[in-house]
C-alpha cells in the first residue's frame, strides 16, 4: 500500500509539472512593462529597462496598433510624396541608419522584434522609415531637386498651436505649457498613446505619441529633470542635409537626456539635418525659465526669459530664416500661421497673471479668426478646422492639409513634479469628426476611405507616470 501511495504522489506531481509547463511563459523582456485599457481615446503604456527591453515592450504591447499606424503612414506618405515605400526603406537604411547611435538602433530593432513576437511582421527598416515619416517631405524636395525637378513646393504649413509661459504671466509664477497637434485625421486618430518610459540611462519621461515611434513626433513631453518640451513646425520650410542626424533621433535624445535648456538646444542642434524644422518651446521647471529655439538648417535662434512667454503657430521669428529657408510670407495676415500668431498675442495680454492649465485648455479650443474678426472655426483659429474652411487646403499643401487640431496636451509646474500631463483626444472645442461627412464634402480624399475612421472629441484626462511594479506585463 505504501508503494502504491508513493506512486500516486509521484504521478500527481508529474501531471502537475506537465500542466504547469503548458502555461504561457511571459518573456522576461516584458518585466515591469504594462498597458492599461483605453481611457477617453488614449492608450497608456509603461516601458522600462535597457534600450532593447524598452523597444521589445513597445513592439509587443502595441503590436496591432503599430501595424495599423504603419499602414496609415505608408499609404499617406506614398500618396503625398509620389514614391513607393521601398524608396523610404532604402533611405532609412542607407542615409539615416548610419547616423543613428547604438542606443536607438537597439530600441528600433527591438520594436520590430517585439511586434514580430506578437505576430506582426514588420522589419527594422519599416520601423525606421515610419519613425522618419514627418521628415520625408523635406528629404523628397531635396531628392527631387538633386534629380533636376524643382517643382515640388516647400514642406507644408499649419502644423500645431502652442505656448509656454512663466513669471508674471502665469497664475502661480511657474511654467505652463500647452500644445495641439495639427495633422491629417488619418494619422491624428492614431496619435493616441501616452508613453511613460523609464530608460536605463537619462531621465524618465512621459510624452504623447504614435505606436511604433521612439519620439513623440508632435513633441509634447516632460522629463524627470523638470524639462517641458513642445514645438510648432516652421511654415513652408525647405532644407535637408543628407549627412545629418534624423530629427526623430535628436528629438528623442533631447526628451531623454536634457537637464537644462542649454542641454536641449545643444542636442537638437548637433547633427541637425533640417528635417521637420520647428520652433521649439521649452521650460525648465527647476529655474522657471522658458525658451524658444527656432531651428532652421542655416539659421538658429535661441531666445529665453524668466518672465514672459513664447507662442507658436508655424510663423517664422527670424526674418533672415524666413527669407533664406522658407517660401513663407510673414506679412500676409490671411495666412493661418500669422492669424493665429495675432490671436496668441491677444490671449497672452488679456490673461497676464491668470494663465494656468485650465486657461491652456480654453486657448486650445479657441475659434476666433483674427483676419475675419469673428468666431469662425477654420484654418485661422487656434483650434484648427481646415476641413470646415471654405478655402480648404492652401495651394502649396499636399492633400493632408485638409485636417485640423486632432489632439491636445497641457502641463504646469506642479504636474511636471509628479510626472503628469493632461491630454484631450480630438478637437478641444468638443466637435466630433465624422469620416463619412468629411469624405462626402471632400471627394478628392476618397482614397482615404479604407483607413479613415470617426474621431470623437474626448475630455481632458490627466495621466501620471506609474511604477512598473503596480502594473502587469502583457497585453
Task: Describe the 3D structure.
The chain is globular. The protein is built from 15 helices and 17 strands. With 475 residues, it is of the alpha+beta class. Residues 1-23 and 469-475 have low confidence and may be disordered.
Indicate the CATH class of the domain at 157-464: Alpha Beta
Number of strands: 17
Radius of gyration: 23 Å
Strand fraction equals 15-25%
Give the N-terminus to C-terminus distance in angstroms: 49 Å
Mean pLDDT: 91
- What portion of residues is helical? 25-40%
Largest beta-sheet characterization: 9 strands, mixed
Q: Give the overall silhouette.
A: globular
Number of helices: 15
Quickly give the CATH architecture of the domain at 157-464: 4-Layer Sandwich
Low-confidence stretches: 1-23, 469-475
Structural class: alpha+beta
CATH topology of the domain at 157-464: Penicillin V Acylase, Chain A
Question: What's this entry about, in short?
Answer:
This protein is of the alpha+beta class and 475 residues long. It has helices spanning 2-21, 51-61, 63-81, 85-96, 102-117, 124-131, 136-146, 185-188, 247-257, 261-269, 319-325, 336-350, 357-364, 413-417, 435-441, and strands spanning 34-35, 43-49, 161-166, 176-183, 193-199, 205-209, 221-223, 227-233, 278-284, 289-295, 300-305, 308-312, 368-369, 374-375, 404-412, 420-425, 461-464.
